[in-house]
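User: structure tokens for this one?
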Amino acid sequence: MTLIEWMPFSVLIPLIAAPVCALLPGRVLPWTLTFVSVLASAVICALVLPMAVGEGPLSYAFGNWPPPVGIEYRVDAVNALLALLISAIATIILPWARVSVNDEVPDRQGPFYALFLLAMSGLMGITLTGDVFNVFVFLEISSLSTYALIAHGKNRAALLASFRYLIMGTLGATFYLIGVGFLYIQTGTLNMVDLAERLPALADDRAIRTAFGFIIVGMGLKLALFPLHRWLPGAYSNAPSMVTVFLAATATKVAVYVLLRLVFSVFGVEFALAMPFEEIFFTLGAVGIFFASLSAIKQTSLKRMLAYSSVSQIGYIALAISLISTAGLSAGLVHIFNHALMKGALFMCVGAIVYRIGSDRFADLGGLAKQMPLTMLAFVLAGLSMIGVPLTAGFISKWALISAAIEAGNGYAVGIVLIGSLMAVIYIWRVVEIAYLQPAPDNADMSRRREVGLSMLIPLWILIAANFYFGIDTRLTLDIATRGAEVLMGMTP
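Assistant:
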């Protein structure tokens, strides 16, 4: 078998392992099968990435039915990096999650890990497929399993958050499917490459423009673009900590990828320029940064603060997309990768805190830096990356975005990025001030306020190290993101 023929197994292995995992008893066997499955997927993605970047798009036709008749996986610099990100994050999370899941989901862990595998395989399928309808199929696989994962939260609010996400997610998927239906009616094909060849001749068709609008709204709901973000804070703050880490690091990033792929590779740059795409995304991105950052500042719990911070970070990506340039898309793609590292680390810190003290409320964090010094130091370092301090991955993202804005002559975007970074200083500093400078609450159970074990610290610090490594060496991130932006803009085959 050639290397590209192994690529479908990065989706199939976790997909096949999921029902097996659901039948396994106890805690050890489901976790072990899950870890082996996601590790195998990550290894495959790591092997395929250099080939996808160096040789251009790689295609695998299922059943030897050539596209557009058959279904294909199509891998290039854009989705190869994203597939590696999803599988690598899942692999890093699982050793950390074992302790957390034992605490938050003590029973029926087989079905829980099965849902996790389904969510991951759905995200991987969305990323790799070259068929717009199969994007919907995998979107539903990942979404339905995610709703159930969120419902595993400890309190009843998790059920309400899961239901709200279900309603909003279903609306988003329905809007997307309606858009795909319009495309199929007008073109007779679902293959992305074939669509890209047929759509230019239909650019003035009202049905095609309607399809574009439905797809933008549908994916806007999925990626939590302001003001379609209302489901995200509740989902992130009430889900089990492992689920929050995985969703924050991967789910919205995949939705952004689908949006980029369809807008720039399928509809095309000229079509986007003919629509008010630039103005809409610039406005929503800018307002989203300010609104979500203000909301983050006003929160009283860590999870909700970081959830609104995620909405703000989506605003930066929207800002980058609105520039409609290679530099802008490159900045957006590299921020997708870097934000996964920083937000994954931050939510891991919160998960460790919740595991030890049973709360993420600011009022309970006083003096915690003395009892959990390594966890709180990790939070500070990941927070520096979120702010965009030099030598961190977050700095690379914001520098790339500022450079792209200057190149496009958009001074407003530069100001928005700088102001948003200053607002991030405020909400990150609130946590630092409480944990380092205030005493422990009078009613605190000091026997529980101690550092977590190595099984949680090592994965956390791997992500912290990655935040600094990719803030210094940008060959894997910025260089590949630039190559991916050129692919999206049609500058390379």
